[in-house]
Each structure stands twice: as structure tokens, then as C-alpha cells.
Amino acid sequence: MNSFDVTVIGAGPGGYVAAIRCAQLGLKTAIIEKSNLGGTCLNVGCIPSKALLDSSEHYHNAVHNFKAHGIDIEAPKVNFEQMIQRKREVVETNVKGIEYLMGKNKIQVFNGLGSFKDATHIIVTKEDGSTEEIETKNTIIATGSYSSELPFAKTDKERIITSTEALELKEIPKHLIVIGGGVIGLELGSVYLRLGSEVTVVEFMDRIIPGMDNALSRELTKVLKKQGMKFHTSTKVTEVTNNGNGVTVKAEDKKGEEQSFEGDYVLVAVGRSPYTDGLGLENAGIETDERGRIKTNEQLQTNVANVYAIGDVVAGAMLAHKAEEEGVLVAEQLAGQKPHINYNLIPGVVYTWPEVAGVGQTEEQLKEAGVKYKVGSFPFRALGRARASMDLDGFAKILADESTDEILGIHIIGARAADLIAEAVVAMEYRASAEDISRMSHAHPTFAEAIKEAALDATGKRALHS
């Protein structure tokens, strides 16, 4: 029987990073994956969606912006089959990269479904039905999540679809109805909006991206409406019907009045649920909470001492980079180190255009906690770099403690916000004040100047360019 110091179940960003770090630290490591290495993120999530977002943005710019830049071309056409094929190639290349890293770090890969026989033995069931048993001192569960469903809108993978099917459509929808105004719904909605689809978003809450700062939600709503996306917030979906060649979505608005939407596809994007089916948790005595998530302590250790869990399968934000940090934390603990994660400083990003990103506390959270704070903001429209590239929408916003000036949160909507948020994370990790950022030189002309100007505004309403 194969025996390992650590076995990781699930090869998504959390799992494969945990395995690599374990191997780097000298632990004999195995990883079990029932499909392709890379998990949801690499195969049917983060990476393929960004590939389509980039492709659709190129098309959008060719149609709407090239002429202003002095580039005259014939009316561009979408080769959707090629767009999907390029997305597949991006995924395949990344999967091969993970395979290379497994070999480089001498991690043994088992292809199949991993399930606990007991706390130290795992059965791997392969695609052909054969099984193999391995022994392990420690196990890291990193099985991720799957798209949640509405009880009255079961996905049929034809007209009622999840993000997985939305990445592999055979045609561009005429009218795509999106249930859920969160990250997944808005990103995939943006892809098809740019390609010419009518896109209608139906959201139960009173605003889109409800987990982010309200100012970002308002600005993104305004910008996406300008692009043509339609929104129905405070609206509860009650029925979804596949009519063969299209779908009907019935809902109630905040006044209780019935609304009806007709489209050719409906994307159900109402969140994700932890994936624990087939793990055999009961055989090892591992406990879950009321939402099906695996219970852990601050060290991500389950109630079974030698079993840990990370990523989407435990409580917290369902983000690939959060899972990676947790994988590293568990690996380093197993090696006798004392790592730490500051969950307040894990950024959230929406890859629409403009991009949206935030880290730390939102203004709503500070108000609820009774924290006295000050606000500084700066519009991208006032940036020379933004005007040069025609990316004028958005702003940077800094929240700082009223008495100490320590930065409590930074929220950005605008071009390259996904990259700009890293400056915010670094500053807050070192507990910078707004004045600290305001006195740091930022290259001109750059989008990053918006952060400096927002910091200047927070320190005394003295932004230089607005």
C-alpha cells in the first residue's frame, strides 16, 4: 500500500498549491483528482471566463473604440467557434502547467474519486470502477464547490444553464437572462453583452454585487446600464420554464407584482455550494455545518486531528486566492511553522470592464460597527492615463480611521482595478495611513495615481487633480 505524509483531495487552486508547498517542505505528498488538474477555477471558472472576457473586450473595442483611435477597419465579425476554441487552448495549457508542477515537485497524482475509509486510509475509485487504497498521516480536503441551484429552476444544461455551460455555448444568445447579480452572473453577462446579446439581470437583493462597498455597486450599475445591460433588483424569481427554443422566467418585484421575462437562455448564478459528495466524511467522523461546509478551527483543522479542509468547502469567501493562502497555511503548519492569514486583507474582484476590486472594510460595515472614519475618493475621469486610453469610468475610494488615519478599506472601480488592489493589500498589511500613500511617488501617467489622489483627499480634501 502506498503511504504518504500528506494526501490532498482535490486539485484546484487550494489543493494543488497545498500539495506543492507540502512537497517543498519535505513531506511525501499525494494528490487525488477525479477530473482535470486545476479544479473548477482553471477548467470551468476563473481562467476560461477571463479568456472569454478578454476576447469579447477586444471585439467590443474593435466595434466601438478603434475609430476614435484612428484605426479604420471593416465591420468586425465574431467567430464564436474560434473564441471558444481559444478559451479551451488557454485551459489546456494551464492544465499542462499544473501537471508539470506535480512532476517537478515529485507529487504523486491519483486520478479518481477520493473517499475516506477511515481517518488514515483513503480509497481512490477510478473512472473504470477499479479502486486503490492509500495510507496517509494527514489529509487536506480541497474539493471546492459547485453551482447552487434554485429548487424550481433545476439546470438542464440546455436552456437553463450554469456557468459551466455558459462557457461552452454553441451560439451567442439573442437574450440571456441572468438570475443573480453577483460576480459570476455579471462577468458572464458582460461577455455576451459585448458580443451582441440582450442581457437582463434579475437580482433578489436591492443591488448588484451586494457583498462589496455600496458605492462600487452604484457605479457598476450605472456603467453596465450605459453598456446596455438591464437590471431588475429587489426581484424574486418564482418560476423558470424551458419552452424548447427558449425560456420563461417569472418573478415578483418589491411591490409584489408579477414580472415575466422571455429569453433563449437563462443563466442561474445564485452562488456556489461546498462539494462533499462521495468523500465518505462519516467514515472518518468529520463534521459539517448546517450549510454542508466542513467545520474547522482557526488552523483549518477539522474535529479529526489529522484532517484539514480549505477553500470553498469551508466557511469564508469562495475565492481561488483565499484557497491558495489556506493551502499554504496548512502545509506550513504540518511542517512545524506558525503561519497566519489576515482574512480582512483578502481582496475581492469583479472582472467586468471597468473592473471592480475591494479590500478591507466597506463603508456599510464601518457604519454598522460604529467606527468613526473619513473618506477620500478620486475619479478616473481626472486621470491623464485614463483619458489617454478612453477608460474614464470609475473611481478609487479610501476609508481611513478618523483619529489614527490608518487605512481601513480601499475600493476601486475602473481600468485595471484588479491589479491596482494589490497596492491596497500591501499598504494595509503594513498598516499604512492615508498620509503614507499620499506621500509615496506614483509614476505619471498611470491608473495607480487614483489611489494616491484618493489618499490625498482622505487626509484633508487636498487632491491635486480634482
Care to describe what's here?
The structure is a single chain. By secondary structure, this protein is α/β, with parallel strands linked by helices. The protein folds into three domains: 214 residues, FAD/NAD(P)-binding domain (3-Layer(bba) Sandwich); 111 residues, FAD/NAD(P)-binding domain; 116 residues, 2-Layer Sandwich (Enolase-like, domain 1), CATH 3.30.390. Helix content is 33%, strand content 25%. The strands form five sheets. Strands 1, 2, 3, 4, 5, 6 and 17 form a seven-stranded mixed sheet that branches. It is globular and about 65 Å long. The chain starts with a strand and ends in a 6-residue tail after the last helix.
Brief digest:
This protein has 466 residues and is of the alpha/beta class. The chain contains 14 helices and 22 strands.
List the topology elements.
Elements: E1 2-9, H1 13-24, E2 29-33, H2 39-44, H3 46-64, H4 80-104, E3 108-111, E4 113-118, E5 121-125, E6 131-141, E7 145-147, E8 160-161, H5 163-166, E9 175-179, H6 183-194, E10 198-202, H7 214-227, E11 230-232, E12 236-242, E13 247-252, E14 258-263, E15 265-268, E16 272-274, H8 281-284, E17 307-309, H9 320-334, E18 348-350, E19 355-360, H10 363-369, E20 373-379, H11 384-389, E21 395-401, E22 407-414, H12 417-429, H13 434-438, H14 449-460
Parallel strand pairs: 1-2, 1-6, 2-3, 6-17, 8-15, 9-10, 9-15, 10-11
Antiparallel strand pairs: 4-5, 5-6, 7-16, 12-13, 13-14, 18-19, 19-22, 20-21, 21-22
Helix pairs in contact: 1-9, 3-4, 3-6
What would you call the shape? Answer: globular
CATH topological fold name of the largest domain: FAD/NAD(P)-binding domain
What is the typical, i.e. mean, pLDDT? Answer: 97
Number of helices: 14
From the 3D coordinates, which CATH architecture of the largest domain would you assign?
A: 3-Layer(bba) Sandwich
Q: What summary fits the major beta sheet? A: 7 strands, mixed
- Rg: 24 Å
Distance between the termini: 69 Å
